[in-house]
Each structure stands twice: as structure tokens, then as C-alpha cells.
Amino acid sequence: MPTPSMEDYIEQIYLLIDQKGYARVSDIAENLSVQPSSVTKMIQKLDKDNYLIYEKYRGIVLTPKGKKIGERLVYRHELLEQFLQLIGVKKENIYADVEGIEHHLSWDSIDRIGDLVQFLEKHKETYDLFLQELHEKQEKKI
């Protein structure tokens, strides 16, 4: 399994390729707020570990293994954002919170969160009760 740092790179490369059709070292560095030299070192490691294929001056291509992990990492990120939104976390806190927790949850926990989100979406009346309770709790704090 990739390390949390490796996951960040794979996720970012996957997103760039999905959005632009390609991923460049400079784009990865900008999006992750790291130096291009750090990106190059990580890309070489990811290439060695068969997550991607990197040819200097030619580009980056995810291997099937890298693409599969990239898809799963993007799913995890989007699911956690959706979950935090559903439970009433303030919009301005969601991204930082997801970044803080996404690498610390097991895939089993991620799958259970996915099940809960699906349940709440399917059972709107239950979700509405939760929102009502949340609103009443927040009103009492004021």
C-alpha cells in the first residue's frame, strides 16, 4: 500500500489527468504546494513501485494499479466531503478536515461511512430528523 504522501501524489495525478488529459510536474507541485524537485523524486518512487510510468520530458501515465488506487482515493475524498457536509460541518472547514482525516481511516471505515451516507440519502425522513435535532442543539448554544 502507498504511504499517505504517495496517496496525495497519486490522487493529484489522477485528478490532473482526468481534468486536463495529462499531468505535469509543475502542475502537481503547484497543486500540492511542494517544490518541483520533490515531485520528481516522488514520481520516480511511484514509477519504481509500478503506480505510474514516468519518462523524463515526456509525461506521466498511471498504470492500471495506479489508476485503480487513484479512483479509490478520489472516491474517499469526495465521500468524506459529502459525509461532513451531511452532518453539518461548516463549508469552510470541510476541505481541511478531509485532508486531516482521510489518511487515518481504514478502508473498512470508509466503506461504512459510504453505507451511512447512502442510508441517509435513501431515508430522507431520518436525515431530516437528524437535521432538526442538530438545529435545535445549535439554537440552544446561542
UniProtKB/TrEMBL annotation:
Activity regulation, free text: DNA binding is strongly activated by Mn(2+).
Residues bound to Mn(2+) 1: 8, 99, 102-103
Keywords noted in UniProt: Activator, Cytoplasm, DNA-binding, Manganese, Metal-binding, Repressor, Transcription, Transcription regulation
InterPro entries named in the record: DtxR_MntR_Metal-Reg, Fe_dep_repressor, Fe_dep_repressor_sf, HTH_DTXR, HTH_tscrpt_reg_MntR, Iron_dep_repressor, WH-like_DNA-bd_sf, WH_DNA-bd_sf
Chain sites annotated for binding Mn(2+) 2: 11, 77, 99, 102
A GO biological-process term: intracellular manganese ion homeostasis
One Pfam family per UniProt: Fe_dep_repress
Ranges where the HTH dtxR-type domain occurs: 1-63
One GO location term (cellular component): cytoplasm
Subunit text: Homodimer.
HAMAP family: HTH_MntR (MF_00732)
Family annotation (NCBIfam families): PRK03902.1
Biological role: Central regulator of manganese homeostasis.
Family, as annotated: Belongs to the DtxR/MntR family.
Protein name: HTH-type transcriptional regulator MntR
Natural source organism: Calidifontibacillus erzurumensis
Upper lineage: Bacteria, Bacillati, Bacillota, Bacilli, Bacillales
